[in-house]
Amino acid sequence: MDKKIRVLVAKPGLDGHDRGAKVVACALRDAGMEVIYTGLHQTPEMIVQAAVEEDVDVVALSVLSGAHMTIFPKVRKLMKAQGLKDVLMTGGGIIPEEDIKKLSKLGVGRLFTPGAPLKDIVEYIRAALS
Amino acid sequence: MDINNLVKRIVAADKLSISRAISMIENNSPDSDNLLDGIHKYVGRALRIGVTGPPGVGKSTIVNELIAALRKRDKRVGVIAVDPSSIFCGGAILGDRIRMQKIGVDNGVFIRSMATRGCSGGLSRATVETADIIEASGKDYIIIETVGVGQSEVEIFRSVDAVVLVLSPESGDAIQAMKAGIMEIADVIVVNKADRPGLDAFVTNLKNTLELARPQSVPHLCGSSKAKIPVLTAQANAGIGIAELLDTLEKYLSGLKESGKLAQRRRDVLRERIKTHILTRLEEHLLSDKKITKLVDNEIGKAGATPGKIAQKALRVLINRKTRKVLIPSKKRGRGV
Ligand SMILES: Nc1nc2c(ncn2[C@@H]2O[C@H](COP(=O)(O)OP(=O)(O)O)[C@@H](O)[C@H]2O)c(=O)[nH]1
Ligand SMILES: [Mg+2]
C-alpha cells in the first residue's frame, strides 16, 4: 500500500446544492486521490473534526453563499488550533479577486471561481503537495 | 518518530495522534509494528461489530443511529467505514460520513473512512489494525461498515465479534447473490427501509431462504447450531428499530461471552492474524531475495527438477542464519525490511 493524497471536500453553510462540490470530488477521485466527502450544511467545527479524523492533506471547501469571508478564516483558525497548520486549504465559489487576496494572507491556498478547469484544481493540489 | 510518545497520546484519546497512527498503518510505515506492539495492552476490551450489506440499503444511516444510541448509554464509539477504491484510477470517493453526522462534534466518537486500495490481502489486516489503534484510545465499541461484495470485505468480518447484515425490501436480487457468502457469517439481519412496499413478503421470503441456505454448523452462533438468526426490521432514517437492534446485539454478545465462545472466536482471529503476519514477512522477503529468484530461474527446465524439488532448494536458501536477521528485525527496525 502506498501513500495516497487524501482530500476532504465539504460544503459549509446553509445554501442548498452541492453539484459543484460533487463534480470536483469526482475529478479528484479520477486523478487517483481519496476524497472524503461530507456533504451539505457543515459547520466549521464539523469540517475541522473530519479533517483531523481523516488525516487529510487537503481541505477543499465549496462556498457559494457569499459567506466566504467568514467561513474560510474560521475554518483556517480552527485548523491551526487543532494542529492542522500544514494542511493545504483550497476551495471555490463566487469569490471576488480582492477577497481571494485577503484570504491568501490568512494562509488560505488558491481559490477557484466557477468555470475554472477541473484539471487546474487537480494540478494545483498535486504541485502544492509535492 | 517517538513511538512511546505517540502511544501515550493515542491512549489519551488525542484525535490527531490516533489519525496519524492510522495513516502509518494504511501506508505500511516501517514503524507500524512497533506502534501496534505499543498499543497492544490497551486492546481487547471493546466489542467489535461489523455492518455489511448491498450499497444504498442504509448501512451508514444505521451506524449513525447506533453511534447516537451508544452515546446515550454512555459508551464511546469508534467507526471504520470502508469503501472500494476505483480499479481504474486508484482513487476513491468515501461518502459514508455524509450520513454519520447526528452526533456532531464529540470526543467520545472517532470516525475514519478507508479505501480498499485494491489490495485484497492487506485490507482486512489494515482494518483490524486500525480498529486496534482506535480501541486503544478508550472506545467501548468499534463498528466497521463495508459493502459486503468482495472476498476481502468478507474477510474483515471474520475478525469482528458480531456481523449485522443490512438488507432492504428491494434487496431480492442481492440475496440471491450473497446466499453463499456473507449470509453465512451474519449474526443478526436487519431489514431496513421498513417504510418501503413489500416488507412482509420480503421478510417471509428471507426467513425461508435462511432455513435453506444456512449450514448446520456456523461456528460462532451463540446458541445451538440450529439457532435461528434474528431478523429485525428498521427504518433507520427515522431512528426506528435501532434500540431493538442494539438490545439484540448486546444480548447476543453477552451470550457469546458467557458461553466462552467470544474468547474462542478471538483466539481464532489472533491465530489467523499471526499466520498472516508470518506469511507476509516471508513473502516480502521471498519476492525481494534475488538469490532465490535466480536459483528458481536456473532450475526451471533442468532435467528432473520438479516444482517440489526446486521449492525445497529455495527453502534451504531462504531459511538460514543470514535470513534470520532479515526476517526477524531487531527492536529498532520495523516492518517491510
Ligand atoms: N426510505 C428509507 N430510506 C432510508 C432509510 N434508511 C436510510 N435511507 C436512505 O437510503 C439512502 C442510502 O443510505 P446509506 O446509509 O448511505 O446507505 P449505505 O450505502 O448502505 O451506507 C440515503 O438516502 C438514506 O437517507 C429508511 O429506513 N427508509
Ligand atoms: Mg455507507
Which keywords apply here?
heterodimer; A: 130 residues; alpha/beta; Rossmann fold; 5-stranded parallel β-sheet; globular; B: 337 residues; 2 domains; 7-stranded parallel β-sheet; 49% helix; binds guanosine-5'-diphosphate; binds magnesium ion
Percent of residues of chain B in beta strands? 5-15%
Give the amount of beta strand of chain A, in percent: 15-25%
Which strand order spans the largest sheet of chain A, edge to edge or round the barrel? 2-1-3-4-5
Number of strands of chain B: 8
Q: Measured on Cα atoms, how large is the radius of gyration of chain B?
A: 22 Å
Per DSSP E runs of 2 or more residues, the count of β-strands of chain A stands at 5
How would you sum up the major sheet of chain A? 5 strands, parallel
What is the distance, rounded to the nearest whole angstrom, between the alpha carbons of the first and last residues of chain A? 19 Å
Poorly predicted runs of chain B: 217-226
CATH superfamily of the largest domain in chain B: P-loop containing nucleotide triphosphate hydrolases
Q: Give me the oligomer status.
A: heterodimer
Query: The CATH topology of chain A, please?
Result: Rossmann fold
